[in-house]
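Students often ask why we bother encoding 3D structure as a string. The short answer is that it lets us treat folding as translation between two languages. Here is a chain of 517 residues written in the first language.
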Amino acid sequence: MSKSRMQNVLVLDFGSQTTQLIARRVREAQVYCEIHPYNISIQEIKAMSPKGIILSGGPSSVYDKDAPMVSRELFDLDIPVLGICYGMQLTTLLLGGRVEKSSRREYGHAKLIIDQPDKIFHGLAQGGIGHQVWMSHGDRVEEIPAGFHVIAHSESCPIAAMAHESRPIYGVQFHPEVAHTEIGMDVLTNFLFKVCSCTPDWTMRSFVSSAVEEIRKKAEGRKVICALSGGVDSTVTALLINRAIGDNLTCIFVNNGLLRKNEAEVVLAFLKQFKLNVRYVDAEDRFLSRLKGVEDPEKKRKIIGTEFIKVFEEEASRIEHVDFLAQGTLYPDVIESVSFKGPSATIKSHHNVGGLPEVMKLELIEPLRELFKDEVRKAAEELGMPYELVNRHPFPGPGLAIRILGEVTRTRLSILREADAIVLEEMKESQWYWKVWQSFAVLLPIRTVGVMGDERTYDHVVAVRVVDSLDAMTADWSKLPYELLGRISNRIINEVKGVNRVCYDISSKPPATIEWE
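And here it is in the second language, the structure alphabet:
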């Protein structure tokens, strides 16, 4: 199925930290969905012919001087609209209602009482003790616009949900996209299927078919080189392109010297079974030379990203008539690397996006840039990739460079490789590797006093990071058994020369990020 013929739901982003979750929940219902900035033009929206529009939450007040706005015309397009939190308040303001500062900020769990039956509350009980939802707002709707009626309330929010009497326009003050809202998926799927009349046609089988078709149209008869790391993202990218254009694809695996222990050997062994045309490039000296003396994490990312492109361009020069560079950029990479006025600020440049030089000789092919990580894994299964590779933990493009805080040297890389290998060995041996999102070691830029035998030591500190997540947009630290943590710590201290202390990172995302840099 071509994406141009696939139904689409738009999420307009007003800066909520959970905007990405809205899109994920819609896709979980097997409906294709895209996030766009709130200031997208009405003409662009019309051109996309969406089945529905969801207005996200956001940190602003609708009365702020520079509050993000949409055109009043949006509500006259005869397209169903669901406003969430700020989106509900904005809907109210633009359609003639009144929004005021709440007498008491409502943040956290609340009980939603459904007052009237409605399509978005189809199948949900009215009255009674209510349904647990998640609130996060300082303003609230005090007077609904003409033509609307109140369909739900909470203790602190008399107008917690509203619906137009004759048009498909809705507003909810709570956040249906977060897991804390028990009826969240009910509300979203009711909006998608009962209001927007969507059909669940966004599957990985349809994606693979559509992606192969689009790649073939774009690159048939032309040559592509693919940045292949051996991770699930780049491997799925390569398999999709290989299925589309066959021998015109050349995969390039670059050993940048920042890989995990035995990574190159493991990756190349994996790739042999897929019969891909792979070229191996040993660029370790080159990358480490460029990183000498560099401590700033953003500089490290930029250097590594730029050097990757240079390597690929040099390799491309050895292949006649190469037109495209393929890489496994994902949707969160794109979202995190782009900031609109109002939406959440850029946290870091991504190695697949922010690291690219302004001028590049090769055109990009990024078939996964519409997908979240768990969707890529489903696509990998659809393509027949083995379980071990499909469920391999994510590994960042800059590699161990951003898990070494401070300067990257051969000595520090060696220490981190050995410590990281122990973490992975113990995680797999205990079967916890397959239960968590990501696990790895980090080398800190400090030394601490210790005692080993009868001698005083002054050695490095390793932090262990293990997190649970669905898509890397949010994450929580994993509650590993103490016995497992103890084995990891003891082995690292006893087996890795130069380390005398191990710490466990118990930070969640947000406010922390998964990677340390």
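Translate back mentally: The first helix runs from residue 19 to 28. Keep this in mind for the problem set.
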